[in-house]
Amino acid sequence: MRLSRRCAQIYAFGALALLLTGAQAPAQAQDYPTKPITIVVPLAAGSGLDSLVRLYADKLQRSLGKPVIVENKPGAALMLAATAVATAPADGYTLLVSTSSAMAINLVLYKKVNYDAVKDFIPVSFYVKSPFILVVNPDLPAKTVPDLIKLAKESATPLNYSSPGAGVAQHLSVEYMKQRFNVNMVHVPYRNTPQSITDIVANHVQLGFAEAGASLPLIREGKLRALAVSSSTRLPTLPDVPPFAEAASAPDFEAVSCHMRFAPRATPKPIVDKLHAEMDKIMRDPEMQQKAATIGLLPINPPSIEETEKYLASEREKWGSLVRKLGLEGSQ
């Protein structure tokens, strides 16, 4: 009899615990947020990534009813910000914006990474692709991608291409092209984006994949010739320039950086879902899409969190295998 009464008490306690747990989850989303939210950005204020974050942070602040603070934490090839957020409380009040460089490429490129991109983070929203533009010096006798590939294969001396450094997305994008089309080109690494683009204009190097924001003014002035964009769709700001996939008859070719917002992995699911839903509404706003396109970015309707996880896994495999193939694993 005692045993039966004890079992009944344990059962009742367990049922109450389950009931309370079930009631707590919706409350977390319903009550959230109760204080300011901080979004940590891995680049300096004024960059394209930062500018877009500030645009949607304002909208997020209005919809959630609490301040949304943008904190710039540049350094360590975007990894300083990621490291800071990886150790932050998993309560939805400290979020990270980052790209495929910090969440895919750097994991293989660097000897030491102080966070685990898979175990430490969950992607709350994948909202923008940042494509590159394949640009050449106007004196180069190549007006299309097939022209460039043919020239590279037939040239007595290899063409030179620039990037802001070994292992960065622009460097790997050209290497991806080289391997796909079996062409030989020589990499000339620079310390920053402006210098790498300026030397294409000066014809010290012949070509490169360049960030849209940095190269668009030079393209419009005729100082650079744009052959293709690295995304699978056209850039609204360059509607006459085809995607590389179309220009080279390579349907699966895409080499972009992605802008995603992350939360610490242990953040309660109701809060993650709420943040995802809010960002989905924001990025479907035509005004927001127009502002993103104006600064050379490709806004997208955020896919589900599960789809984003799969996309990130494929990006890690794609760029990680290329870094290893180039012998750059642990080189930084």
Explain what this protein looks like in three dimensions:
The chain is α/β, with parallel strands linked by helices. The protein folds into 2 domains: about 170 residues, 3-Layer(aba) Sandwich (D-Maltodextrin-Binding Protein, domain 2); about 120 residues, 3-Layer(aba) Sandwich (D-Maltodextrin-Binding Protein, domain 2), CATH 3.40.190.10. Helix content is about 45%, strand content about 20%. The protein contains 12 helices and 10 strands.
Compose a concise summary of this entry.
The chain is α/β, with parallel strands linked by helices. The protein has helices spanning 2-31, 48-64, 79-86, 100-109, 145-154, 169-181, 193-201, 212-220, 244-247, 269-283, 286-294, 305-325, and strands spanning 37-41, 68-72, 94-98, 121-136, 159-163, 185-189, 207-211, 225-229, 256-264, 298-299. It is built from twelve helices and ten strands.
- CATH class of the largest domain reads Alpha Beta
Q: What fold name goes in the CATH topology slot of the largest domain?
A: D-Maltodextrin-Binding Protein, domain 2
Q: In one word, what is the shape?
A: globular
CATH architecture of the largest domain: 3-Layer(aba) Sandwich
How much helix, percentage-wise, in residues? Answer: 40-55%
List the secondary-structure elements in sequence, H or E.
HEHEHEHEHEHEHEHEHEHHEH
The end-to-end span amounts to 69 Å
Q: What are the low-pLDDT stretches, counting only 5+ consecutive residues below 50? A: 6-27
Q: Domains counted in the coordinates: how many?
A: 2
SS field, number of helical segments: 12
- Which secondary-structure class do the elements indicate? alpha/beta
